[in-house]
Amino acid sequence: MFNNFLEIQNTTFVASKLNKVLDFNLTIKNEGDIICLLGPSGIGKTTILRSIAGLQKIPKGFISLKGRTLSSEKEHAEPENRNIALSFQDNSLFPHYTILDNINFGAKRNRKAKYDFNVNELIKVLHLEGLEEKYPHQVSAGEAQRVSLARSLMSKPDLLLLDEPFSNIDQSLKVELQQNIKKILKEKKITTIIVTHDSYEAFYMADYCGILLSQTMKQYDTPYNIHHYPNSIEVVNFLNRGILVDAKVLDETSVEHKYLGVIKGNFVNKYKKGTSVKLLVQPEDLEHDDRSDLKLEVIDKKFRGTNFIYTLKTKNDDLIPVFVHSHHIHQHEVGEKFGVKTPIYIDHLVCF
Amino acid sequence: MIKNINYWYLSSFIVSLLVALPILTVFASFFGTTSEYYELLKNTFLLDYIFNSLIILIGVLTLTFIFGVLSAYFVSFYNFPGVNFFKWSLILSFAVPAYIYAYSLTAFFENFGSLFALLKWIFGEGDYNKFIPKFDGMIGAIVSMSFSLFGYVYVLTRASFYYQSHNLIEVSKNLGFSAKESFFKIILPSARPAIVAGLSLVAMECVADFGAVSFFNVSTLTTGIYNSWLSYDDLNTANQLSFILLLIIVCLFFTENFSRGGAKYHQPSRGFKRIPKINLNGKKSILPIIFCSSLFFFSFIFPTLQMAYWTIKFPKYFQDINLWALNLNTLFLVIIASVTLITFSFLINYGNRISKSKFLNYLSLFSISGYAMPGVILAVAFMSFFSWLSDFLTLSFGFLSIKGIFIGSILGLVLAYFIRFYSLAFNGIKSNYLKINQSIDESSYLLGYTKFRTFRKIHLPYLKNSVFLIGILIAIEIIKELPITLILRPFNFDTFATKAYAYASQDLLEAAALPSLFLIFWAGLLIFFTSKYILSEK
Question: Which residues of A touch B439 (CB under 8 A)?
């Protein structure tokens, strides 16, 4: 038996001369876990998938699946012998086969698999009904992407790699597909690595998320922890959910902001009294309260259907996002004053 | 793994070397000793040769530009009676090589020729010869080549009109241009690379032409090369003349590549939509109808009719000419050459694809140079190389002469065809291979298919049609090919082209009619079958 399902150790991935991912480590302990790799475009996420699939060699490091070495400096198992499916971001359907033939193309590959798919069900779940006899050039980009996904699933891989699987798919269908696919993957216990630049998608789909920034994996954790305990300023900036404001540590449970006043909460890391820090303030941290004395000016207001996101300006020009339900009592126009409940309480005080 | 790659390198290298042989030979002999005949030429005729070649080139380029662009414009943008017929029938001109056009032209306009007979039949006896214009010499060569070559400009320009312009027309209308402004400011400039590419092809064929200029006794570089071999048995001079001609062609070749450089292979984007053509009725449709029908008539019907007329008028040549042998010889050459060409093109394309080696890519680029090499040069260089090799082996190692194996043999002929048409086969397969995205191969590997099974299940079925098409294109070229066959063929081995040439050069034009007619028939038939592809919007 093997200890870890997938292991990648100190591996270098080369996307191009200038673009590399260095010293990459990733361990998937349990079969059936879904991992999302999150990072900006052009960081080398696709290269990582291609190397795991065996389409590219690695100059340094070690990759093993179910205890079997796939890639190292000396070894390189050919992609056809890895039983890893990769669904490409761009269209890679076989142009001279019908959609159905495409989906079935790898179906006979893995007879020993623990799970199986019914083609018709899969077609239904992925909303591909009626396309079976068409050819790839007759379907839309989003449909082609789903066909490619179906084809990968039908080959019953040990490890499924998805490269931006929802990039061409309409917003409305996306949510449903994400649900359907997550359900399938969990039911059949298919270990999956998804590459994406959409943090909402990653947080929804993943058991664990890896954040790739400037050639390395900055953080690898559960989506909850990544959101609430980002481990570096770069990760905060990349996720772009909150802002960092200057503050001073008062005691073991509070910090002080020059214009927001005392902010209470639990420190994630310990700091000495009086240390100047940058405090992470996220949209859900401040509460609206018109009776409060702390009034901030509304700079911008985004209506998101179920909620508003206001941008408020403090006197020292910090721009703070605040999230409220879209309820008439929370209605304020740009330029008006917006009351913030004091004292401010933030569950996890994340400081840098 | 290492062994595999070496194998690809080796086959690529051998093919490149073979195709490069004529160029290397020509290059080597340019710096060889200069024979006296060449000195003589340099002092007297060389400038004439170049001058004549250039005059013909300018004439042919002008005419093919007018014929090709106008006809492409009419059939691409307008609906008029017969437009669908003209669309494909204009490419039938490819079935009539310039030298056969030259025979027809002469047969029709010569003293007491077909026109004379026609006039006599209508108006009775008379001294018509004085009034009948004579198309011979330079003018005849220009007219013959223009009608047989304008198809290149037509096909490429039309494809470009079809594709780019229709998207651009919408944009230009959106920007407020009128139809006329759109044409001159948007459509024509956007088709410029295609027009230049078409004209460069015409130019290369034109300077390489041997049959028509030799028939009209115009001294150009190609006839100079041929004559210094045939009349003076001076291969060295022939190769030195070849060098000069090659220099001209290299310039043309770069123009063509340069103009095509930006046009990357790409599939049309989704949602590509054709804009409806403009309907022309009544008076307005007269001009395009007259233009297209005359072009079709003069480029195809006229030479065919002339040859058919003489074939019927002089039936005795049915007995003199062994038609069976001509047909079988042609078929034999076509099959051997296309099978060899396609096999090697496939092998090397596949090697390039899976090894992803840049070096291999460059090597194969080098190996397609045969495409720009005029048949005359190729044949003469081929012959001088193997004569040299044979002499070298005999003198150094006491080998028996190997001349007979390569010169005047089927093997030598097929090798020369291979050199000449390799780029046609290679590029044909390559451009279709490029349409198969690399990620398609990768998907197949990822679904558990080995490289060989990917080749069998994905590449072969996908490329099947284009391989068939390439086979036909090679067949058309071989049927029309004259100088290589003429110089390298085995004794008493004839194709339609050489048979017709032999009669024509003995002033037996009426005997040349039968093989010429057959040549037009076969080439026309094959073009008819492939017209869909030739005219496809690629």
Answer: 88, 90, 92
**Which B residues 446-475 touch A at CB under 8 Å?**
446-451, 458, 461-462
Q: How far does the CA of residue B169 sit from the closest CA of chain A (Å)?
A: 24
The class that CATH gives domain A242-349 is mainly beta
| pLDDT tens digit sequence for B153-196 | 998 888 887 766 556 666 666 776 776 777 777 777 778 878 88
CB A152 within 8 A of CB A86: yes
Q: Does B437 touch chain A (CB under 8 A)?
A: yes
pTM to 2 decimals? 0.76
Out of B442, B444, B462, the one facing A95 most closely (by C-beta) is B462
Separation of CA A129 from chain center: 29
Distance CA A227, CA A39 (A): 14
Average pLDDT, chain B: 82
CATH number of A6-235: 3.40.50.300
CA distance B3 to B535: 42
Residue B353 DSSP SS3: helix
* 3-state percent helix, strand, coil for chain B, nearest multiple of 5: 80, 0, 20
End-to-end Cα spacing for chain A: 42
A139 inside 8 A of chain B by CB = no
Q: For residue B446, which residues of chain A lie inside 8 Å, CB to CB?
A: 53, 55, 79-80, 82, 84-86, 106, 152, 155
pLDDT, mean of residues B455-479:
88
Architecture of domain B1-33+314-494: Orthogonal Bundle (1.10)
Task: Please judge whether A84 and B450 are an interchain contact, meaning their C-beta atoms are less than 8 angstroms apart.
Answer: no
Cis peptide before A343 (omega within 30 of 0): yes
Q: What angle do CA B16, B20, B21 make, to 5 degrees?
A: 120
pLDDT digits (tens, 9 = 90+) for A241-277: 888 999 999 888 889 988 888 899 888 888 888 889 9
- φ, ψ of residue A61 in degrees (nearest 5): 120, -160
The class level of CATH for B45-262+284-313 reads mainly alpha
Q: What is the DSSP letter of A320?
A: E
The per-residue pLDDT for range B208-224, each reduced to its tens digit, is 899 899 999 898 888 88
